[in-house]
Amino acid sequence: MTPLSRPSRLAVLWASFLALVFDGVELGLMPLASLSVSKSLLGEAYTPTLGGDWFARFTAALMLGAAVGGVALGHLGDRLGRTRAMGVSVLFYSVFAALGAWVQTQEQMLALRFLVGLGVGGVWPNGMALVSECWPKASKPLVSGVMGAGLNAGILLLSQLARLKPITPDSWQWIFHLAGVPALLGLLVLGLLPESPQWLAARSAARKPQPPLRELFRPGLIRLTVAAIAVSAIPMVGAWAASKWMIPWADKLAGAANADYKAATQGWWAVGATLGSFFGAQLASWLGRRRSYLLMSLGSTALTVSMFQLTAPLEAGFHGVVFAQGFVATLFFGWLALYLPEIFPTHVRATGSGLAYNFGRFATAAGVLAAGFLFSALGGDYPRVGAICAFIYALGLLAIWLVREPTTERPIPRMARV
Asked: Which of 107, 182, 304, 415 minimizes the number of CB atoms within 10 Å of its CB?
């Protein structure tokens, strides 16, 4: 196996990082634009409670699409190559996001958010597998941190653009046009980015291909697969069923008179989240996988409850708590960027990472819909919904005991291809 040159490895890192940055733009788009889109498309039928209910539906559609895309396109990455699958994923989320500028009904937007989600889910497993295989082991905590920060850097970028040009019921289509620009990156990835040498070597050495999904549930891997699913699902459900309610809450309280406040709120969260998702990999390396995840679970529960119960939008301390919550609750994603690729062997790495990371999105779709029903049942009470759902993070105190801590005496097993 001939390793890539340093310029090729840098190209892989930058392309994968940018794919995740634009992935983050897609993830952050509807929390900012949802109420404006709903007010525009529903017209006189719009109510604040109905706006929150549609926010939950849009989020659930995106998460369901991401779950399907993560598994299907992760499988494609193991079959046809990391770069091909990542390029297709970028094209999916870019093209279908751009089409959102021309929708005429909420149902049309709902369908497009699912299709956008297919690409959103496919980028993470293929990008992480590609970078993990192209960079030397000594660089992995740092590189995993950079990759983990990519999603939230995209959310931060979007929030700053929305502060310069606020998203309102009369002006929201522009953000969907902009979300289509990364299609150029998808074409470049497909045409120019080098493939993973490890994947090429594994494909050449394979004597009899086996279905990767089935292999993840064989005796040698099933325990690792179940553990990976559990620790991936909890922060994902917590982020979307609990934390994200702060954006429409800020939008509602700030109103048209302060249209950029929701973008400022997302910006403060995204600054904390970008730092948190970078340092999560470092924290996992310094403190160990179990201890760091345990602390993240405790901190995320406490800060999310505090954000919804001890402060509120437009209050002086609100953005400080939002920043802190964003930092602590996204340490998980840097942690996952390090943990998931290291536990799966090469021939099922993208499939395994995609299944674990995106199974959480199936749970998230269900969790967000449940939170939406709770929101309606509580009469549109954002603080109560957010605080109740915050206890999802506390489940991490139990799930972490499924994780096997890698040590020099007992490394995480790497199954050979048979």
From this structure: 107
Q: How many CA atoms lie within 13 A of 388 on its CB side?
A: 14
Q: Read off φ and ψ for residue 413, nearest 5 degrees.
A: -65, 145
**By C-alpha distance, which of 335, 264, 265, 251 is closest to 307?**
265
The pLDDT value recorded for residue 403 is 75
| Alpha-carbon distances of 67 from 15, 71, 191, rounded to whole Å | 22, 6, 26
Q: Which residue is listed with tokens 């702060």?
A: 246
- Going by the DSSP 8-state scheme, the letter that residue 168 receives in this structure is B
Give the orientation angle of helix 106-134 with respect to helix 197-205, to 10 degrees: 80
Residue 412: CB atoms within 10 Å: 15
Over range 380-408, report the average pLDDT: 86
3-state SS assignment for residue 147: helix
Q: Which of 162, 383, 135 is nearest to 267 (CA)?
A: 162
Q: Which two tokens stand for residue 298?
A: 């405790």
Q: Where are the beta strands (DSSP E) in 26-163?
A: none
Alpha-carbon distance of 369 to 105, in angstroms, equals: 20
What residues form DSSP beta bridges with 168? 171
Please check whether residue 217 is in contact with residue 229, taking contact to mean a CB–CB distance below 8 angstroms.
no
Beta-carbon contacts of residue 137 (< 8 Å; ≥ 6 apart): none
Query: Does the domain made of 6-402 have the CATH classification 1.20.1250.20?
Result: yes
Per-residue model confidence (pLDDT) at position 91: 96
> Using alpha carbons only, what angle is made at residue 27 by residues 101 and 228, rounded to the nearest 5 degrees?
145
pLDDT in tens, 135-169: 766 566 677 677 777 888 899 999 999 989 999 99
8 A C-beta contact, residue 269 and residue 323: yes
Closest CA to 60 of 110, 120, 4: 110
With tokens 């279908």, the residue in question is: 96
In the numeric block, the tokens 């009470």 are attached to: 381
DSSP notation for 76-128: HHHHH-HHHHHHHHHHHHHHHHHHGGG--SHHHHHHHHHHHHHHHHHHHHHHH
What is the spatial distance between Cα 341 and Cα 310, in angstroms, rounded to a whole number? 38
State CA 172 to chain mean position distance: 23
Block residue for tokens 């008179």: 257
Under 8 Å CB-to-CB from 318, ≥6 apart: which residues?
265, 307, 311, 312
Domain ranges for the chain: 6-402
The pLDDT tens digits of the residues spanning 301-316 come to: 999 999 999 999 999 9
pLDDT tens-digit profile of 175-188? 999 999 999 999 99
